[in-house]
Amino acid sequence: MPTSTLLTWLKILSLLVLTVCNHYSLSSPNPPPDDNERECYDGEKEADPVPRISLWMPPVWRNMMHAFTLIETYVLICRLHPELIYPPIYSFLVPNPSTISNIRFTPSFYLGFALIFSGTVLRVLCYHLLGRNFTFELAVRKDHELYTDGPYSIVRHPAYTGAYLWVLGLQFAQFGQGSWWRECRIWKTGLGLGFGVFFVILCLLVAGTLWTRIKKEDEVLRKVFKDQWISWSHRTPYVILPCHWHGCGSSLLPKWQLDVPRASTYCLRRPTPIPRWGNFDDHDQIQMHWNMKPNQTLGIDPDSAGNGLGLNVIIYIS
């Protein structure tokens, strides 16, 4: 078998693997939760924005990516077996037949494939570890347990890490150098350009929605699991990426605001004197006013137990 033929079949096999990855990354492992299981989130001032798009976004995106990979697979098969070419369809998919030889393995495809595959594996692992508690809609299920082992001991939201890896990988594998969309110059057609714009908007929408959702999820989990979540956030300060986006969940909030349970005593601890005391208001919220360096994090000491008069919380800067 010629080397070019072997590489073409390997590219076809890789595209089929990506099809499977796209399917699992965008398919919820469990049915939607009941309304009463969503009350912890829907009762907030701002409802979870994800359900507004969760009904149509995953199937639309999944089918869209399936179409892309299957089209590229069909074009590659036609390169090996010209007798399978159906002119009305083929001429639309490949406006310039001389460009079909440019669909090939490239460093961009290798990188995209690795990102998509690793992101999917991470998400499927999270599906398995959380079991029935993993849903695409924010909810606290009956007998819900806070899982803190495995990838959840490295970052608090590894499934979102997998989602970001998957989205980033799509840019390289299915829209980068060596792909059907780029090499056959589909992006220069009106339909192809419109699809590209739609895809970029969809990526930005999902990325922004997940960012908002992460903050909300941390806030609700802290209220539901209290000291258990606080202890976990102290052991696992990173949200999405290790050594980045760190803090005690609420590090994502503006002005370093941190909600804490109502307490009778607040005290502060730091190796060096604090320039200015925090402002303690009547709404169970502490807003730190001193200047913080970029690498400092704000957290709660989970070992500061109550003394019979109320919860004694120690706020520390590390």
UniProtKB/TrEMBL annotation:
- Which keywords does UniProt give here? Endoplasmic reticulum, Membrane, Methyltransferase, S-adenosyl-L-methionine, Transferase, Transmembrane, Transmembrane helix
Ranked from the top, the taxonomy reads:
Eukaryota, Fungi, Dikarya, Basidiomycota, Agaricomycotina
User: Native species of this protein?
Assistant: Meripilus lineatus
Q: How does it sit in the membrane?
A: Multi-pass membrane protein
Q: What is this protein called?
A: Protein-S-isoprenylcysteine O-methyltransferase
EC number per UniProt: 2.1.1.100
Q: Which family does it belong to?
A: Belongs to the class VI-like SAM-binding methyltransferase superfamily. Isoprenylcysteine carboxyl methyltransferase family.
Statement: the UniProt record of this protein carries the keyword Iron: no
Task: Give the transmembrane ranges.
Answer: 6-26, 109-130, 191-212
| Subcellular location(s) of the protein | Endoplasmic reticulum membrane; Membrane
